[in-house]
Amino acid sequence: MIHLADVVVVAAAEAFRGDGEIFASGMGTIPMLGARLARGTFEPDLLVSDGEAFFVGNELPLGGTDKLIEGWIPFRTVFDTLWGGRRHVMMGASQIDARGNTNIANIGPWSKPKAQLLGVRGGPGNTINHATSFWIPKHTPAVFTAAVDMVSGIGYDRAEALGPWVQAHHDLRRVITNLAVLDFECGERRMRLRSVHPGVSVADVVSATGFELVIPDHVPVSRAASDAELATLAHLDPSGLRLREAPDPQ
Amino acid sequence: MSRDKRISHDAAIAPLENGMTIGIGGWGSRRKPMSLVRALLRSDLTDLTIVAYGGADVGLLAAAGKIRKLVYGFVSLDSIPLEPHFRAARQLGTIAECVEYDEGMLQWALYAGSLRLPFLPTRAGLGSGVVDVNESLRTVRSPYADGEELLAVPAIRLDAAFVHLNRSDRAGNAQFLGPDLYFDDLFLGACEPGHRFVSCERVVATSELLDAGTFHTLRVNRSMVDGVIEAPNGAHFTSCQPDYERDEVFQKEYATAAADAGRWAAFTERFLGGDETAYQAAVADWRPDR
Protein backbone atom coordinates (compact mmCIF):
# COMPACT_ATOMS: atom_id res chain seq x y z
CA MET A 1 0.00 0.00 0.00
CA ILE A 2 1.23 3.46 -0.91
CA HIS A 3 0.78 5.94 1.96
CA LEU A 4 -0.06 9.54 1.13
CA ALA A 5 2.46 10.65 3.77
CA ASP A 6 5.29 8.94 1.89
CA VAL A 7 4.20 10.46 -1.42
CA VAL A 8 4.14 13.99 0.00
CA VAL A 9 7.45 13.59 1.85
CA VAL A 10 9.06 12.45 -1.40
CA ALA A 11 7.47 15.44 -3.18
CA ALA A 12 8.85 17.69 -0.44
CA ALA A 13 12.31 16.16 -0.88
CA GLU A 14 12.06 16.63 -4.66
CA ALA A 15 11.44 20.35 -4.11
CA PHE A 16 15.02 20.60 -2.78
CA ARG A 17 16.59 18.70 -5.70
CA GLY A 18 19.43 20.67 -7.25
CA ASP A 19 19.67 23.15 -4.38
CA GLY A 20 23.25 22.20 -3.46
CA GLU A 21 24.97 23.58 -0.38
CA ILE A 22 22.24 25.74 1.13
CA PHE A 23 20.01 25.62 4.22
CA ALA A 24 16.98 23.41 3.50
CA SER A 25 14.55 24.72 6.09
CA GLY A 26 11.30 22.90 6.78
CA MET A 27 8.44 24.20 8.93
CA GLY A 28 6.42 21.25 10.19
CA THR A 29 6.81 17.48 10.01
CA ILE A 30 6.43 16.87 6.26
CA PRO A 31 8.74 19.73 5.15
CA MET A 32 11.37 18.85 7.76
CA LEU A 33 11.30 15.19 6.73
CA GLY A 34 11.45 16.22 3.08
CA ALA A 35 14.61 18.22 3.67
CA ARG A 36 16.22 15.42 5.68
CA LEU A 37 15.21 12.79 3.10
CA ALA A 38 16.67 14.86 0.25
CA ARG A 39 19.91 15.34 2.20
CA GLY A 40 20.02 11.64 3.09
CA THR A 41 19.55 10.50 -0.53
CA PHE A 42 20.01 12.60 -3.68
CA GLU A 43 21.01 16.04 -2.36
CA PRO A 44 23.80 15.34 0.15
CA ASP A 45 25.24 18.88 0.28
CA LEU A 46 22.11 20.40 1.87
CA LEU A 47 22.31 21.77 5.40
CA VAL A 48 19.45 20.83 7.72
CA SER A 49 18.71 22.05 11.22
CA ASP A 50 17.35 20.51 14.40
CA GLY A 51 14.55 23.08 14.37
CA GLU A 52 16.14 24.91 17.31
CA ALA A 53 19.52 26.52 16.65
CA PHE A 54 21.92 23.97 15.19
CA PHE A 55 22.84 22.47 11.85
CA VAL A 56 23.03 18.70 12.21
CA GLY A 57 25.42 16.65 10.13
CA ASN A 58 24.00 13.22 10.89
CA GLU A 59 20.78 11.56 9.74
CA LEU A 60 18.79 12.83 12.71
CA PRO A 61 15.37 11.25 13.27
CA LEU A 62 12.46 13.58 14.12
CA GLY A 63 12.71 14.39 17.82
CA GLY A 64 16.11 12.72 17.95
CA THR A 65 18.63 14.03 20.47
CA ASP A 66 21.79 12.28 19.29
CA LYS A 67 22.90 15.24 17.19
CA LEU A 68 26.12 15.66 15.28
CA ILE A 69 26.23 19.44 15.48
CA GLU A 70 28.02 20.90 12.46
CA GLY A 71 27.05 24.53 12.86
CA TRP A 72 25.19 27.14 14.90
CA ILE A 73 22.16 28.86 13.39
CA PRO A 74 20.49 31.15 15.94
CA PHE A 75 17.68 33.32 14.58
CA ARG A 76 20.02 36.19 13.77
CA THR A 77 22.06 33.88 11.56
CA VAL A 78 18.88 32.55 9.98
CA PHE A 79 18.05 36.10 8.89
CA ASP A 80 21.60 36.65 7.62
CA THR A 81 21.44 33.36 5.70
CA LEU A 82 18.05 34.05 4.16
CA TRP A 83 18.85 37.65 3.22
CA GLY A 84 22.07 36.24 1.75
CA GLY A 85 20.04 33.85 -0.37
CA ARG A 86 21.54 30.62 0.97
CA ARG A 87 18.23 29.07 1.98
CA HIS A 88 15.13 27.36 0.59
CA VAL A 89 12.21 27.26 3.01
CA MET A 90 9.14 25.07 2.90
CA MET A 91 6.38 26.55 5.04
CA GLY A 92 2.62 26.51 5.49
CA ALA A 93 -0.06 28.80 4.05
CA SER A 94 -3.63 29.35 5.19
CA GLN A 95 -4.47 30.96 1.85
CA ILE A 96 -2.74 30.99 -1.55
CA ASP A 97 -3.78 32.51 -4.88
CA ALA A 98 -3.03 31.72 -8.52
CA ARG A 99 0.07 33.94 -8.59
CA GLY A 100 1.48 32.45 -5.37
CA ASN A 101 0.61 35.21 -2.92
CA THR A 102 0.25 33.49 0.45
CA ASN A 103 -1.25 34.32 3.83
CA ILE A 104 -0.36 33.00 7.28
CA ALA A 105 -1.26 36.24 9.08
CA ASN A 106 -5.02 36.61 9.46
CA ILE A 107 -8.40 35.78 7.89
CA GLY A 108 -10.68 38.72 7.19
CA PRO A 109 -9.54 42.35 7.18
CA TRP A 110 -6.19 42.96 8.88
CA SER A 111 -7.55 45.94 10.82
CA LYS A 112 -10.00 43.71 12.67
CA PRO A 113 -9.57 40.11 11.55
CA LYS A 114 -12.25 37.48 11.74
CA ALA A 115 -9.48 35.08 12.73
CA GLN A 116 -6.06 36.24 13.83
CA LEU A 117 -3.41 33.71 12.85
CA LEU A 118 0.37 33.99 13.27
CA GLY A 119 1.08 37.38 11.74
CA VAL A 120 3.31 37.65 8.68
CA ARG A 121 6.32 36.14 10.54
CA GLY A 122 9.22 35.72 8.10
CA GLY A 123 7.07 35.37 4.98
CA PRO A 124 7.85 38.74 3.36
CA GLY A 125 11.60 38.33 3.81
CA ASN A 126 11.62 34.69 2.75
CA THR A 127 9.73 35.14 -0.49
CA ILE A 128 11.68 38.19 -1.63
CA ASN A 129 15.10 36.68 -0.92
CA HIS A 130 15.20 33.01 -1.83
CA ALA A 131 13.33 29.89 -2.94
CA THR A 132 10.11 29.23 -1.07
CA SER A 133 7.86 26.17 -1.25
CA PHE A 134 4.65 25.40 0.56
CA TRP A 135 3.13 22.36 2.25
CA ILE A 136 -0.64 22.61 2.56
CA PRO A 137 -2.18 19.55 4.23
CA LYS A 138 -5.81 20.30 3.18
CA HIS A 139 -6.38 21.36 -0.41
CA THR A 140 -9.71 23.24 -0.43
CA PRO A 141 -11.23 26.16 -2.38
CA ALA A 142 -11.08 28.28 0.81
CA VAL A 143 -7.30 27.84 0.94
CA PHE A 144 -6.72 27.99 -2.82
CA THR A 145 -8.57 31.26 -3.17
CA ALA A 146 -8.91 34.00 -5.78
CA ALA A 147 -7.44 36.61 -3.42
CA VAL A 148 -5.69 36.24 -0.06
CA ASP A 149 -6.76 38.47 2.85
CA MET A 150 -3.21 39.53 3.80
CA VAL A 151 -0.08 38.99 1.72
CA SER A 152 2.51 37.48 4.04
CA GLY A 153 4.45 35.95 1.14
CA ILE A 154 4.63 37.75 -2.19
CA GLY A 155 3.50 36.11 -5.42
CA TYR A 156 4.72 36.59 -8.98
CA ASP A 157 2.45 39.57 -9.74
CA ARG A 158 3.83 41.51 -6.78
CA ALA A 159 7.42 40.47 -7.51
CA GLU A 160 7.00 41.63 -11.13
CA ALA A 161 5.92 45.05 -9.87
CA LEU A 162 9.20 45.41 -7.97
CA GLY A 163 12.67 45.85 -9.45
CA PRO A 164 14.88 43.54 -11.53
CA TRP A 165 16.79 42.26 -8.46
CA VAL A 166 13.58 40.98 -6.91
CA GLN A 167 12.42 39.43 -10.16
CA ALA A 168 15.75 37.61 -10.44
CA HIS A 169 15.62 36.17 -6.91
CA HIS A 170 11.92 35.64 -6.19
CA ASP A 171 11.40 31.90 -6.69
CA LEU A 172 8.26 30.02 -5.67
CA ARG A 173 9.29 26.45 -6.23
CA ARG A 174 6.53 23.98 -5.30
CA VAL A 175 3.17 23.81 -3.60
CA ILE A 176 2.54 20.36 -2.15
CA THR A 177 -0.90 19.36 -0.88
CA ASN A 178 -2.80 16.23 0.12
CA LEU A 179 -4.03 16.00 -3.48
CA ALA A 180 -1.29 17.17 -5.78
CA VAL A 181 2.01 18.89 -6.47
CA LEU A 182 1.78 22.31 -8.09
CA ASP A 183 4.38 24.76 -9.40
CA PHE A 184 4.69 27.95 -11.45
CA GLU A 185 6.73 26.51 -14.31
CA CYS A 186 4.84 28.05 -17.18
CA GLY A 187 5.34 31.21 -19.19
CA GLU A 188 2.81 33.33 -17.37
CA ARG A 189 3.97 32.20 -13.91
CA ARG A 190 0.55 31.07 -12.78
CA MET A 191 -0.06 28.03 -10.61
CA ARG A 192 0.26 24.89 -12.67
CA LEU A 193 -0.72 21.34 -11.83
CA ARG A 194 2.54 19.38 -11.83
CA SER A 195 1.30 15.97 -10.70
CA VAL A 196 -1.64 14.34 -8.95
CA HIS A 197 -1.14 11.90 -6.09
CA PRO A 198 -2.06 8.25 -6.62
CA GLY A 199 -5.86 7.84 -6.62
CA VAL A 200 -6.52 11.55 -7.20
CA SER A 201 -7.96 12.81 -10.50
CA VAL A 202 -7.29 16.13 -12.20
CA ALA A 203 -10.99 16.89 -11.69
CA ASP A 204 -10.58 16.37 -7.92
CA VAL A 205 -7.86 19.00 -7.84
CA VAL A 206 -9.80 21.42 -10.02
CA SER A 207 -12.88 21.19 -7.81
CA ALA A 208 -10.77 21.76 -4.69
CA THR A 209 -9.18 24.90 -6.15
CA GLY A 210 -10.89 28.30 -6.01
CA PHE A 211 -9.20 29.66 -9.14
CA GLU A 212 -8.29 28.44 -12.59
CA LEU A 213 -5.19 26.26 -12.68
CA VAL A 214 -2.84 25.85 -15.61
CA ILE A 215 -3.28 22.20 -16.56
CA PRO A 216 -0.88 20.58 -19.02
CA ASP A 217 -2.13 18.06 -21.56
CA HIS A 218 -0.52 15.25 -19.65
CA VAL A 219 -0.53 15.33 -15.83
CA PRO A 220 1.69 12.61 -14.34
CA VAL A 221 1.05 10.81 -11.06
CA SER A 222 3.27 11.90 -8.15
CA ARG A 223 5.94 9.31 -7.74
CA ALA A 224 5.97 6.81 -4.90
CA ALA A 225 8.91 6.45 -2.53
CA SER A 226 11.61 4.03 -3.62
CA ASP A 227 12.59 1.16 -1.34
CA ALA A 228 15.75 3.03 -0.41
CA GLU A 229 13.71 6.14 0.43
CA LEU A 230 11.29 4.10 2.53
CA ALA A 231 14.23 2.69 4.45
CA THR A 232 15.62 6.18 5.04
CA LEU A 233 12.16 7.38 6.14
CA ALA A 234 11.86 4.46 8.56
CA HIS A 235 15.05 5.75 10.18
CA LEU A 236 14.13 9.47 10.06
CA ASP A 237 10.55 8.99 11.30
CA PRO A 238 10.43 5.69 13.18
CA SER A 239 7.13 6.46 14.94
CA GLY A 240 5.32 7.55 11.78
CA LEU A 241 4.66 11.19 12.75
CA ARG A 242 4.27 11.94 9.04
CA LEU A 243 1.05 9.91 8.97
CA ARG A 244 -0.51 12.30 11.47
CA GLU A 245 0.23 15.34 9.32
CA ALA A 246 -0.73 13.58 6.10
CA PRO A 247 -3.19 10.78 6.93
CA ASP A 248 -4.35 8.40 4.23
CA PRO A 249 -7.70 9.46 2.72
CA GLN A 250 -10.76 7.82 4.29
CA MET B 1 34.61 48.13 41.92
CA SER B 2 31.63 48.36 39.57
CA ARG B 3 28.30 49.64 40.81
CA ASP B 4 25.88 47.20 42.34
CA LYS B 5 22.76 47.55 40.18
CA ARG B 6 20.61 44.93 41.87
CA ILE B 7 17.04 46.06 42.45
CA SER B 8 13.63 44.48 43.01
CA HIS B 9 10.99 43.92 40.34
CA ASP B 10 8.75 46.58 41.80
CA ALA B 11 11.60 49.10 42.09
CA ALA B 12 12.35 48.55 38.42
CA ILE B 13 8.74 49.17 37.43
CA ALA B 14 8.11 52.09 39.82
CA PRO B 15 9.66 54.91 37.74
CA LEU B 16 7.93 53.86 34.51
CA GLU B 17 5.12 56.06 33.22
CA ASN B 18 1.90 55.61 31.33
CA GLY B 19 2.34 55.73 27.56
CA MET B 20 5.95 54.55 27.56
CA THR B 21 7.41 52.29 24.86
CA ILE B 22 8.67 49.03 26.36
CA GLY B 23 10.69 46.39 24.51
CA ILE B 24 10.49 42.82 25.73
CA GLY B 25 13.27 40.37 24.79
CA GLY B 26 13.09 36.63 24.15
CA TRP B 27 11.26 34.98 21.27
CA GLY B 28 7.73 33.51 21.27
CA SER B 29 7.63 31.28 24.31
CA ARG B 30 11.39 31.26 24.85
CA ARG B 31 13.39 33.04 27.58
CA LYS B 32 10.82 35.76 28.15
CA PRO B 33 11.32 38.12 31.13
CA MET B 34 8.04 36.89 32.58
CA SER B 35 8.69 38.00 36.17
CA LEU B 36 9.07 41.59 34.92
CA VAL B 37 5.95 41.18 32.80
CA ARG B 38 4.11 39.98 35.92
CA ALA B 39 5.40 43.06 37.75
CA LEU B 40 3.98 45.20 34.93
CA LEU B 41 0.64 43.41 35.34
CA ARG B 42 0.60 44.32 39.06
CA SER B 43 1.28 48.00 38.31
CA ASP B 44 -1.21 50.71 37.39
CA LEU B 45 0.67 51.43 34.16
CA THR B 46 -1.45 51.75 31.05
CA ASP B 47 -1.45 52.98 27.43
CA LEU B 48 1.85 51.21 26.82
CA THR B 49 3.52 50.61 23.49
CA ILE B 50 4.93 47.08 23.51
CA VAL B 51 7.62 45.91 21.08
CA ALA B 52 8.27 42.16 20.97
CA TYR B 53 8.72 38.89 19.18
CA GLY B 54 5.65 38.06 21.19
CA GLY B 55 4.42 35.19 23.27
CA ALA B 56 2.49 35.09 26.53
CA ASP B 57 4.11 38.43 27.47
CA VAL B 58 1.99 40.10 24.81
CA GLY B 59 -1.00 37.89 25.59
CA LEU B 60 -1.00 38.71 29.31
CA LEU B 61 -0.50 42.45 28.80
CA ALA B 62 -3.20 42.54 26.12
CA ALA B 63 -5.64 40.65 28.35
CA ALA B 64 -4.96 43.13 31.16
CA GLY B 65 -5.71 46.05 28.85
CA LYS B 66 -2.21 47.51 29.23
CA ILE B 67 -1.40 47.87 25.53
CA ARG B 68 -2.34 50.88 23.44
CA LYS B 69 0.07 50.09 20.61
CA LEU B 70 1.74 46.81 19.70
CA VAL B 71 4.74 46.37 17.38
CA TYR B 72 5.35 42.70 16.56
CA GLY B 73 6.78 40.24 14.06
CA PHE B 74 4.47 37.51 15.37
CA VAL B 75 2.82 36.40 18.59
CA SER B 76 2.98 32.67 19.27
CA LEU B 77 3.48 30.17 22.10
CA ASP B 78 5.63 27.97 19.79
CA SER B 79 4.29 24.54 20.79
CA ILE B 80 0.81 26.15 20.76
CA PRO B 81 1.04 28.18 17.55
CA LEU B 82 -1.72 30.73 18.24
CA GLU B 83 -1.70 32.93 21.39
CA PRO B 84 -5.32 33.00 22.62
CA HIS B 85 -5.29 36.43 24.33
CA PHE B 86 -3.54 38.04 21.37
CA ARG B 87 -6.07 36.48 19.01
CA ALA B 88 -8.96 37.76 21.09
CA ALA B 89 -7.47 41.24 21.32
CA ARG B 90 -6.96 41.42 17.56
CA GLN B 91 -10.37 40.00 16.73
CA LEU B 92 -12.16 42.33 19.16
CA GLY B 93 -10.01 45.29 18.15
CA THR B 94 -9.04 46.11 21.74
CA ILE B 95 -5.48 47.19 20.86
CA ALA B 96 -5.81 50.71 19.45
CA GLU B 97 -2.83 50.54 17.12
CA CYS B 98 -0.95 47.56 15.70
CA VAL B 99 2.26 47.59 13.66
CA GLU B 100 2.93 44.22 12.06
CA TYR B 101 6.42 43.64 10.69
CA ASP B 102 8.31 40.85 9.02
CA GLU B 103 10.56 39.27 11.67
CA GLY B 104 13.69 40.61 10.00
CA MET B 105 12.18 44.09 9.70
CA LEU B 106 11.72 44.16 13.47
CA GLN B 107 15.37 43.20 13.94
CA TRP B 108 16.32 46.03 11.59
CA ALA B 109 14.12 48.54 13.46
CA LEU B 110 15.80 47.65 16.75
CA TYR B 111 19.26 47.58 15.20
CA ALA B 112 18.71 51.03 13.65
CA GLY B 113 17.55 52.22 17.07
CA SER B 114 20.59 50.77 18.77
CA LEU B 115 22.93 52.43 16.21
CA ARG B 116 21.05 55.76 16.50
CA LEU B 117 20.27 55.69 12.77
CA PRO B 118 16.90 56.93 11.48
CA PHE B 119 16.26 53.77 9.45
CA LEU B 120 17.92 50.76 7.84
CA PRO B 121 17.17 49.56 4.30
CA THR B 122 15.97 46.10 3.40
CA ARG B 123 13.99 44.22 0.79
CA ALA B 124 12.03 42.27 3.41
CA GLY B 125 8.48 43.60 3.43
CA LEU B 126 8.50 45.18 -0.05
CA GLY B 127 5.42 44.22 -2.01
CA SER B 128 3.85 42.47 0.98
CA GLY B 129 0.81 43.12 3.12
CA VAL B 130 3.09 44.80 5.66
CA VAL B 131 3.25 47.87 3.41
CA ASP B 132 -0.39 47.53 2.32
CA VAL B 133 -1.61 48.04 5.89
CA ASN B 134 1.01 50.55 7.08
CA GLU B 135 0.83 53.90 5.31
CA SER B 136 3.69 55.36 7.36
CA LEU B 137 6.36 53.10 5.83
CA ARG B 138 8.58 54.73 3.21
CA THR B 139 11.07 53.48 0.65
CA VAL B 140 14.55 54.79 -0.11
CA ARG B 141 16.45 54.61 -3.39
CA SER B 142 20.02 53.35 -3.50
CA PRO B 143 22.30 56.31 -4.36
CA TYR B 144 24.61 53.96 -6.29
CA ALA B 145 24.46 52.71 -9.86
CA ASP B 146 21.87 50.00 -9.11
CA GLY B 147 19.29 52.62 -8.07
CA GLU B 148 17.26 49.94 -6.33
CA GLU B 149 14.24 50.99 -4.29
CA LEU B 150 14.36 49.51 -0.78
CA LEU B 151 12.13 49.59 2.25
CA ALA B 152 13.38 52.05 4.90
CA VAL B 153 12.54 50.41 8.23
CA PRO B 154 12.21 53.23 10.79
CA ALA B 155 14.28 52.96 13.96
CA ILE B 156 12.57 52.03 17.18
CA ARG B 157 13.75 53.72 20.36
CA LEU B 158 12.53 52.29 23.63
CA ASP B 159 11.84 54.00 26.97
CA ALA B 160 12.36 50.74 28.82
CA ALA B 161 13.72 47.29 27.94
CA PHE B 162 13.24 43.99 29.76
CA VAL B 163 15.31 40.88 29.01
CA HIS B 164 15.84 37.66 30.96
CA LEU B 165 19.26 36.00 30.82
CA ASN B 166 20.79 33.03 32.60
CA ARG B 167 23.43 34.79 34.69
CA SER B 168 24.54 38.31 35.49
CA ASP B 169 26.97 39.90 37.85
CA ARG B 170 25.81 42.73 40.11
CA ALA B 171 26.93 45.35 37.59
CA GLY B 172 24.93 43.95 34.66
CA ASN B 173 27.54 41.96 32.78
CA ALA B 174 25.07 39.32 31.71
CA GLN B 175 25.34 35.93 30.11
CA PHE B 176 23.17 33.72 27.91
CA LEU B 177 23.87 30.01 28.23
CA GLY B 178 21.20 28.65 25.90
CA PRO B 179 21.24 28.08 22.15
CA ASP B 180 20.17 31.57 21.10
CA LEU B 181 20.60 35.14 22.35
CA TYR B 182 17.55 36.04 20.22
CA PHE B 183 17.65 39.85 19.89
CA ASP B 184 18.08 40.73 23.55
CA ASP B 185 21.20 42.82 22.96
CA LEU B 186 19.30 44.90 20.39
CA PHE B 187 16.39 45.53 22.78
CA LEU B 188 18.89 46.85 25.35
CA GLY B 189 20.81 48.79 22.70
CA ALA B 190 17.68 50.47 21.34
CA CYS B 191 16.64 51.66 24.80
CA GLU B 192 17.33 55.06 26.33
CA PRO B 193 19.60 54.71 29.38
CA GLY B 194 17.66 54.66 32.63
CA HIS B 195 15.26 51.74 32.37
CA ARG B 196 17.28 48.92 30.80
CA PHE B 197 16.59 45.89 32.98
CA VAL B 198 18.12 42.41 32.98
CA SER B 199 16.45 39.77 35.08
CA CYS B 200 18.45 36.58 35.52
CA GLU B 201 18.28 33.14 37.00
CA ARG B 202 21.20 33.84 39.30
CA VAL B 203 23.46 36.76 40.16
CA VAL B 204 27.05 35.56 40.34
CA ALA B 205 30.44 37.13 41.02
CA THR B 206 32.14 38.53 37.92
CA SER B 207 34.88 35.95 38.44
CA GLU B 208 32.31 33.15 38.18
CA LEU B 209 30.85 34.15 34.79
CA LEU B 210 33.26 32.08 32.74
CA ASP B 211 32.68 29.02 34.91
CA ALA B 212 29.37 28.38 33.16
CA GLY B 213 30.15 29.29 29.54
CA THR B 214 32.85 30.60 27.22
CA PHE B 215 33.49 34.30 26.65
CA HIS B 216 31.21 34.04 23.59
CA THR B 217 28.25 33.97 25.97
CA LEU B 218 29.06 37.45 27.35
CA ARG B 219 27.05 39.45 24.85
CA VAL B 220 25.54 41.95 27.29
CA ASN B 221 27.91 44.26 29.15
CA ARG B 222 27.18 46.67 31.96
CA SER B 223 27.11 49.76 29.70
CA MET B 224 23.85 48.32 28.34
CA VAL B 225 22.16 47.74 31.70
CA ASP B 226 20.70 49.98 34.43
CA GLY B 227 19.22 47.38 36.76
CA VAL B 228 19.73 43.70 37.58
CA ILE B 229 16.91 41.65 39.06
CA GLU B 230 17.63 38.18 40.41
CA ALA B 231 14.61 36.12 39.39
CA PRO B 232 15.03 32.35 39.72
CA ASN B 233 12.52 30.62 37.42
CA GLY B 234 11.71 34.14 36.25
CA ALA B 235 11.08 33.11 32.64
CA HIS B 236 8.45 30.58 33.72
CA PHE B 237 6.47 29.22 31.90
CA THR B 238 8.66 29.96 28.88
CA SER B 239 11.92 28.09 28.30
CA CYS B 240 15.24 29.20 29.77
CA GLN B 241 17.74 26.65 28.53
CA PRO B 242 19.86 25.14 29.95
CA ASP B 243 18.38 26.09 33.33
CA TYR B 244 14.95 24.71 32.41
CA GLU B 245 12.72 23.79 29.49
CA ARG B 246 9.35 25.35 28.75
CA ASP B 247 6.69 24.22 31.24
CA GLU B 248 4.44 22.73 28.56
CA VAL B 249 1.82 21.50 31.01
CA PHE B 250 1.48 24.91 32.61
CA GLN B 251 1.48 26.62 29.22
CA LYS B 252 -1.41 24.41 28.18
CA GLU B 253 -3.21 25.34 31.40
CA TYR B 254 -2.61 29.01 30.56
CA ALA B 255 -3.83 28.66 26.97
CA THR B 256 -6.91 26.67 27.97
CA ALA B 257 -7.81 29.19 30.66
CA ALA B 258 -7.18 32.11 28.31
CA ALA B 259 -9.78 30.82 25.88
CA ASP B 260 -12.59 30.95 28.48
CA ALA B 261 -13.58 34.02 30.56
CA GLY B 262 -14.59 32.07 33.66
CA ARG B 263 -11.50 29.92 33.71
CA TRP B 264 -9.35 32.96 33.04
CA ALA B 265 -10.72 34.71 36.12
CA ALA B 266 -9.86 31.66 38.22
CA PHE B 267 -6.39 31.42 36.67
CA THR B 268 -5.72 35.10 37.35
CA GLU B 269 -6.85 34.80 40.95
CA ARG B 270 -4.80 31.69 41.58
CA PHE B 271 -1.56 32.71 39.88
CA LEU B 272 -1.47 36.44 39.27
CA GLY B 273 -3.04 37.85 42.42
CA GLY B 274 0.19 38.33 44.36
CA ASP B 275 3.84 39.19 43.89
CA GLU B 276 6.54 37.09 42.20
CA THR B 277 7.16 35.00 45.33
CA ALA B 278 3.45 34.27 45.52
CA TYR B 279 3.41 33.34 41.81
CA GLN B 280 6.27 30.88 42.19
CA ALA B 281 4.63 29.41 45.31
CA ALA B 282 1.29 29.06 43.49
CA VAL B 283 3.01 27.25 40.60
CA ALA B 284 4.83 24.92 43.03
CA ASP B 285 1.55 24.28 44.83
CA TRP B 286 -0.26 23.57 41.54
CA ARG B 287 2.37 21.17 40.26
CA PRO B 288 1.76 18.15 42.55
CA ASP B 289 -1.80 17.80 41.26
CA ARG B 290 -0.56 17.29 37.70
Walk me through the structure.
The complex is a heterodimer of chains A (250) and B (290). Chain A is α/β, with parallel strands linked by helices and 250 residues long. Chain A has a single domain, classed as Glutaconate Coenzyme A-transferase (3-Layer(aba) Sandwich). Chain A is 29% helix and 19% strand. Chain A contains 9 helices and 13 strands. In chain A, helix 1 crosses helix 2 (29-40) and helix 2 (29-40) packs across helix 8 (227-236). Chain A starts with a helix and ends in a 5-residue tail after the last helix. The mean pLDDT of chain A is 97. Chain B has a domain at 9-118 and 155-246: Glutaconate Coenzyme A-transferase. Chain B has helices at 9-13, 34-42, 56-63, 84-92, 103-114, 129-132, 184-189, 209-212, 248-258, 261-271, 276-286; strands at 21-24, 48-54, 67-75, 97-100, 119-122, 138-141, 149-154, 160-168, 174-175, 196-203, 227-230. In chain B, the strands form 2 sheets. In chain B, strands 1, 2, 3, 4, 8, 9, 10 and 11 form an 8-stranded mixed beta sheet that branches. The longest helix of chain B is centred in the middle third of the chain and has 12 residues, at 103-114.
Primary descriptors:
heterodimer, A: 250 residues, alpha/beta, Glutaconate Coenzyme A-transferase, six-stranded mixed sheet, three-stranded antiparallel sheet, 9 helices, globular, B: alpha/beta, eight-stranded mixed sheet, 21% strand
Layout of helices and strands:
The complex is a heterodimer of chains A (250) and B (290).
Chain A: H1 4-15, E1 23-26, H2 29-40, E2 48-49, E3 54-56, E4 69-72, H3 75-83, E5 87-91, E6 95-96, E7 102-103, E8 106-107, E9 115-116, H4 123-129, E10 131-136, H5 156-160, H6 164-169, E11 171-177, E12 180-183, E13 192-196, H7 202-207, H8 227-236, H9 241-245
Helix pairs in contact in A: 1-2, 2-8
Chain B: H1 9-13, E1 21-24, H2 34-42, E2 48-54, H3 56-63, E3 67-75, H4 84-92, E4 97-100, H5 103-114, E5 119-122, H6 129-132, E6 138-141, E7 149-154, E8 160-168, E9 174-175, H7 184-189, E10 196-203, H8 209-212, E11 227-230, H9 248-258, H10 261-271, H11 276-286
Parallel strand pairs in B: 1-2, 1-8, 2-3, 3-4, 8-10, 10-11
Antiparallel strand pairs in B: 5-7, 6-7, 8-9
